[in-house]
Specification:
Length: 175
């Protein structure tokens, strides 16, 4: 598997202009006229929550390496983005802003309506904590991949680490 991995992931490029992205932009422009900034931001957060580009990158990588998985399993706390039952592992792919990535350059609270944002992000963070605890209590290994870890520079390390984690978790799951 590792051999295959080396050859494959280096060629991984980010997806260029899939048409759903264009549709999203179009619908944001429409919304701009009828909603307040607050409502629009909320809508954006809802839309962004599923099938985001970072998520697709991780899914494509795993699939190319022969992993098979379920998506957004509602039966599991926090509805993990990716579920690899054979490896007893769930993966959350978190936007650095929405989930408040501490010390990350992409986590900057907007100067206007700061309180509203901080409150919203803190809510997300506590939900993440609760899900993490419940899942680990049930024997799942919980991996979090931050959006910033999928930037070009960090990608090789991130996917290398992910693969190593999965190999380790498979051993634990089968022991
Ligand atoms: Zn980050």
């Amino acid at each position: 598997m590792r051999q295959l991995y080396k050859g494959n992931f280096l060629r991984q490029k980010t997806v260029k202009n899939p048409c759903w992205e264009k549709q999203l932009i179009a619908s944001f422009l429409l919304m701009a006229d009828v909603h307040t900034t607050e409502v629009r931001s909320y809508n954006m957060s809802r839309i962004r929550a599923k099938d985001t580009k970072p998520e697709l990158m991780v899914r494509r990588f795993l699939f190319s390496q022969g992993f098979r998985y379920r998506l957004h399993d509602k039966k599991l706390k926090g509805k993990p983005d990716i579920v690899l039952s054979k490896y007893k592992t769930v993966i959350f792919i978190h936007g650095c802003f929405w989930h408040g990535h501490e010390g990350c350059r992409y986590f900057v609270v907007p100067k206007t309506r700061s309180e509203w944002w901080v409150d919203k992000i803190n809510t997300n963070k506590s939900k993440d904590k609760v899900a993490f605890k419940e899942l680990t209590d049930k024997g799942w290994k919980v991996l979090t991949i931050w959006e910033c870890e999928l930037k070009q520079k960090a990608l090789k390390d991130t996917f290398g680490r992910l693969l190593q984690n999965l190999i380790d978790n498979e051993e634990i799951a089968n022991s």
